Automatic annotation (TrEMBL):
Transmembrane portions of the chain: none
GO molecular function (one): protein-disulfide reductase activity
Species, as recorded: Pontibacillus yanchengensis Y32
InterPro entries assigned to the protein according to its UniProt record, in alphabetical order: DCC1-like, DCC_oxidoreductase
Coiled coil stretches, renumbered: none
Lineage top rank: taxon: Bacteria
Protein name in the entry: Thiol-disulfide oxidoreductase
Pfam family, one: DCC1-like
């Protein structure tokens, strides 16, 4: 199992697009993925003492757990190209970063829509999904 696991909202169109974005730019295949709603995602939440109702992008990096903007920035740091420069925003105080994150998160269904079920990954990326 990969050391870096991204837990995402599998019903969210924006979150699905974010996973596809990461897949294209994670050339070293460092990340694997699990939906928050799936069996594996729920197992990881329980294993790390995180409420099963968590409504955040979560990065499980070994024994470290990152949420919201910190999770997103830590993922960007590992992506190919100029995306890693976004990690520089980590110097902005977490409450400010997370406020912006929460604005997007709280409106993601309204702005981007919601799926009835998780999207199925393509055969070539299936190995990167834990559910």
């Amino acid at each position: 199992m990969a050391n870096k696991i991204i837990l995402f909202d599998g019903e969210c169109n924006f979150c699905d697009a974010s996973v596809q974005f990461i897949l294209k730019r994670d050339r070293q295949e460092q990340f694997t993925f699990a939906s928050l709603q799936g069996e594996h995602g729920q197992k990881l939440l329980k294993q790390h003492g995180i409420a099963s109702s968590v409504d955040s992008f979560v990065l499980v990096d070994g024994n470290q757990i990152h949420f919201q903007s910190t999770a997103a920035l830590n993922v960007c740091k590992e992506l190919a190209g100029a995306w890693k420069l976004l990690y520089g925003f980590i110097v902005i105080p977490k409450p400010i970063r997370d406020k912006v994150y929460k604005i997007v998160a709280n409106n993601r269904y309204k702005w981007f829509g919601k799926k009835e079920q998780c999207a199925l990954p393509s055969p070539e990326t299936r190995k990167r999904f834990l559910d």
